[in-house]
Please model this.
Amino acid sequence: MTSRPPFPEVSALSIGGFVRDDTPTPEVDRREAVLASLAGTVRELVDAAIRTTVDDGEVHRIRDDLAGLVDRLRASQLPGPAGVRFNGEMRAWNWGNAVVGAANAIAPPLEVVHDASGCHADVVLGAAYEGPPGLVHGGVSAMLLDHIMGVTASAMRRTTFTGTLTMRYRRGTPLGPLRLEASIAREEGRKVFVVASIADADGVTVEADGIFIEPAGLRIDPQEQTSA
Ligand SMILES: CCCCCCCCCC(=O)SCCNC(=O)CCNC(=O)[C@H](O)C(C)(C)COP(=O)(O)OP(=O)(O)OC[C@H]1O[C@@H](n2cnc3c(N)ncnc32)[C@H](O)[C@@H]1OP(=O)(O)O
Model:
């Protein structure tokens, strides 16, 4: 069986932590699919580990097997977090992102869809996201909303950071299928005011509003970088 070489190391220019990386889009897509496949299985592992009732000896044997797999992955590693990269076609990838990272088994992952009014995402949260019994952890709700609100504020044309995020937990959010929605309420200079919600089949469980700010001078312009 042949194996492909590791994803290429590239010379990179950095803008506010965002890294210009000229890996061609098809290669990015290919590697992303490979890592997403691994993350999907690790996500299954996390759920299985939480819910297992196998005996202690079996747990110890599985732990030892997993330690061997960790060693194999550690054979070649990035020196730090995956970061956010983009190429000249503005194909961006943030494989370690806590909410949408394709390679991150901690991320649900959220698949954010842009629509006429902002963004939405349908997600199914399982045992790994529990806070109160059977309910989503409040911090997880905030994390997911923060992300979809940030994407909404950025509107695929600017980068914004969360300045202030306010949550209203109306009732418990059950684990299972959920829908997130976010839209821009108004803009004032570099400040973008965003509203958002999480809903289950019976309606809204969490509401949020936030102020997202476009830091002065933070722009991603690949043309500028190429000619620099
Ligand atoms: C395309 C990719 C999309 C990815 C989406 C990912 C979503 C994920 C979102 C996140 O998790 S971001 C990470 C969490 N947030 C941070 O780490 C932000 C840390 N804080 C900062 O970097 C800066 O404080 C910040 C960019 C928020 C503001 O710095 P600035 O130097 O640009 O603000 P400045 O002091 O110039 O103020 C500009 C305006 O914003 C207002 N402002 C500043 N900080 C604020 C704040 N924290 N909350 C509300 N308003 C704020 C400030 O009053 C002023 O209002 P006016 O124009 O009306 O005078």
Summary: The first helix runs from residue 25 to 51. The pocket of decanoyl-CoA is lined by residues 146-147, 150-151, 154, 159, 161-164, 189-191, 211, 213, 215-216 (CB under 6 Å).
